[in-house]
Amino acid sequence: MDGSYIDTEGTDKDMDGSYIDTEETDKDMDGSYIDTEGTDTEMDGSYIDTEGTDKDMDGSYIDTDMDGSYIDTEGT
């Protein structure tokens, strides 16, 4: 609201005037990355995290049993 840019409802949600921010895009309102529902579930903006992929939310690998150590698929 400083008069330097166009700010419409659903566009710049955090009112910083620096980027396009639509609902379901930047969930944590930090304006630093694209974040869609089911993508960055811990809201840190550092990696792609989909449900059933990075269970322990550390952003480093596939871990279905949440032990944080390796690739582990059910029955394998």
Radius of gyration: 17 Å
The assigned structural class equals little secondary structure
* Helix amount: under 10%
> What number is the mean pLDDT?
51
Global outline: rod-shaped
SS summary, helix count: 0
Distance between the termini: 55 Å
Strand count, sense and closure of the main sheet? none
Beta-strand share of residues: under 5%
Number of strands: 0
Low-confidence stretches: 21-25, 34-39, 46-52, 72-76
Write structural notes for this entry.
It is a single chain. It is rod-shaped, with a radius of gyration of 17 Å. The protein is 0% helix and 0% strand. The chain has 76 residues and is mostly loops.
Question: Which features would summarize this protein structure in a list?
Answer:
76 residues, little secondary structure, rod-shaped
Could you write a compact summary of the structure shown?
8% of the residues are buried. With 76 residues, the chain is largely without helices or strands.
Give the topology:
Layout: no helix or strand
